[in-house]
Amino acid sequence: MMRFMLLFSRQGKLRLQKWYTATAERDKKKMVRELMQIVLARKPKMCSFLEWRDLKIVYKRYASLYFCCAIEEQDNELITLEVIHRFVELLDKYFGSVCELDIIFNFEKAYFILDEFLMGGEIQDTSKKSVLKAIEQSDLLQEEDESPRSVLEEMGLA
Amino acid sequence: MPAVSKGDGMRGLAVFISDIRNCKSKEAEIKRINKELANIRSKFKGDKALDGYSKKKYVCKLLFIFLLGHDIDFGHMEAVNLLSSNKYTEKQIGYLFISVLVNSNSELIRLINNAIKNDLSSRNPTFMCLALHCIANVGSREMAEAFASEIPRILVAGDTMDSVKQSAALCLLRLYKTSPDLVLMGEWTSRVVHLLNDQHMGVVTAAISLITCLSQKNPDEFKTCVSLAVSRLSRIVSSASTDLQDYTYYFVPAPWLSCKLLRLLQCYPPPEDGAVKGRLVECLETILNKAQEPPKSKKVQHSNAKNAILFEAISLIIHYDSEPNLLVRACNQLGQFLQHRETNLRYLALESMCTLASSEFSHEAVKTHIETVINALKTERDVSVRQRAADLLYAMCDRSNAKQIVAEMLSYLETADYSIREEMVLKVAILAEKYAVDYSWYVDTILNLIRIAGDYVSEEVWYRVIQIVINRDDVQGYAAKTVFEALQAPACHENMVKVGGYILGEFGNLIAGDPRSSPLVQFNLLHSKFHLCSVPTRALLLSAYIKFINLFPETKATIQEVLRCDSQIRNSDVELQQRAVEYLKLSSIASTDVLATVLEEMPPFPERESSILAKLKKKKGPGAVSVTELEDNKREGGELNGGGDRGPDTASTPSPSADLLGIRSAAPVGPAPAGAGSLLVDVFSEAGPAAPSTRRHFYRFVCKNNGVLFENQLLQIGIKSEYRQNLGRMYLFYGNKTSVQFASFMFCVVALLDTWLQLNVQTKQVEPLVEGGAQIQQVLNIECLTDFSDFFQPTEMASNDFFQRWKQLSQPQQEAQKIFKANHSMDTEVLKAKLLGLGTALLDNVDPNPENFVCAGVIQTKSQQVGCLLRLEPNAQAQMYRLTLRCSKDSVSKRLCELLAQQF
Fold it and tell me: Which residues contact B94 (CB under 8 A, 6 or more apart)?
């Protein structure tokens, strides 16, 4: 089971964090700091796996973003690498050539996509189509929900 | 794909995020955030009811602020309100906020649970999925209590949508992991297992995680999953690369599901059903075959997915450990990967081979790759890969290649990364010990370790080398010689000084014959390091010095000089000062024989699990130690006092006075039961060798009135006794050496039959509880009915009187004589002390030969008094004694003579 997934930038800015076990905020911050330091210090050709505490860390860099997963002793590293890749594909398909900014400005969408793909640290569905269909549906629901608003209203000035 | 969503939603949020991104400093960011928090707070508090959209927007902003790492202490209620919105996106944001930020506010949990309940029963699949996600994300006990019985129903109901089934399966898994007692599968078991047959691959993929977890906990109830899993796997493995449509990933059919199926099978032994087993072996062979086929795509995703399955299959083959053919094929496959250009594959191959090395079928096959692995240790650029190579070398090590592997590891240590040095040191130390045929190699290896990586040599390592040297007399001379040479180095590590100090203190005499390592040379060498060392090492050296005084009397003056100087005897460190003072005093007042007893060579350490191995296990966790090691060391229960309890420091600290009297012998260490606190410990019967040794202890008390009667890891029994005429009082002190309470503590005094008949012993019962670390006292009142040696009263008399009485007791039965070899030191002072301890009066100037001892005393019993005269004639040259006793009562002479003969 995956314990958590982190997305962070080359500059060490955390862009997304998903925890699959209850963890105290203080511990989370400490773990994030520690892991970012370790992963960012590694050179490009190095191996994507490392042991950390009692966990296995699987990470991969896509452009400016690092995707970093913590899995348990008996979990499969290579397939986790492909979990990351599939998630990137899903983001890419949804945002259309995803970049870091998409994830910053639409962080809630990134969380929804991840939730459709992984749940409780396990794969819910591996089919790109199924996952995207679920997201698409919710977007359609959103469109129906929303009535057009003026820019002023948006800015809270109306 | 819809660009619909991009930035459409909440422009206010986008503006806020932009603002934050434009902040030039942390302070500016905090300022902006505080402004926004104030704004949101006022909006939430305002009189105007907020519409759903605004609420959603503000809740989302709060979430963003929280994810930036700031605390959020409000907005939970508004998020909960969103849950009951009819609008999907509002509900979705509400759930997201709750999932990320839920706190244990029970009031809130009840409201959240209500909203979830509504959504679960809404029959709207998207709402149901949101609710299930929320349960899985939070996974709290309250939620498990509320929904654990409902979710299995949703999971197996015929009319549930596939997407909801998938969420329900994983939601249930999460609840099972947090509150297994609340998730009762019972009636659902078989229907859950049959989800493996579901037509929808997504459902199988989600359900198998649940089934695997349940199977691990209740293998019997779920064992029907084995045949289902095998047939599902077989269908996937034999399918063409496009059969599974969207579940084919870069030309690999259903890689995730395949891995999960292979993982599920690892919860069980090989299938008993021949057909099922045959089908499975076929699958495994196909997977191994496919690894040899040319890749269908050059993309790394293709090879990763394919190899993920391959590694999982190899794990299963290793788990079964019953198919030699498959094991060897797996090993060969991994061998290929060892030289692969992908770092990831080399890493995994090294890791996987570690487990193969512990299988008897593949151990030899793994060993053939030794050169490649050594090469990896030397040339890999990534430390985590080198670490794996070191692990594998450790795992493949056996008697045949130990010298090569240890040498390679040692040479790697010189340049090894700091992060893995300590572990490498432990591994080298363990291998050197485990596979040492001649122990001089072992000593060399450990001293090399200290030389190369002294800072990383933990206490356990150098304790261990000392334990081994002390227990094996064939290596002591070599060890002394080698440490002596190692200490010649101008800069040697403090750990080397510790080992050197200890070993020379014990065995320096073995090399003292050589003028180049004469006692004074040894001492000066050690003392030249003294001032550079830390306090514990100095303390150890001081102990070595006092041992030197015993080993080499000619160094006494020099060493006393050193002890006497202000920097020792007035050292500001209490421990050092105490040692200096005590050792100085000891060396000046104690006779050579007393010194020899006190500073006797260390007794052998009890054989037990290497403390280093225990440390490595602790460091790596139990999973990391190979199976063979665990089996080698099943006797872990004895580790009650930890590895260090007999460490050299404690042994040479002369704190309790009992030690100084030389009474305390090597404590018999019985197989101490694990968790002694809860067990009834019958120390005497359980600690096998204890009983006879207690008896041996008893004889020591013929001439002494207090000391330690018995000691093991759990208990120390001290004794103190006083005698007046025919009455005696004996105090027994029971000290609990553990940190846990002894309950139902019982002690019965069982005297040896022959003594019992002559004594009337009254014991006072003691409390049955002994707190950890505490001591309790029991008093025994003893009345001597017939003669018993401890009830001696001294009788002073002049020479004439003595000979007169001696002649009076001239009947043959009244005299007993024994000639025997000396068992103990023949030092005059010691003999005197013993005779006085016996309770007799020592008469000077009676015997014409001043070397002889003459004593007189009266044994007081209830009914009579027995006069006793004693003459002890030592012959130092022959190491013999002649003991003559004449008593007014016949039987007493004989009995006393036998008893006393063992004392000298």
Answer: B56, B59, B79, B80, B81, B82, B83, B85
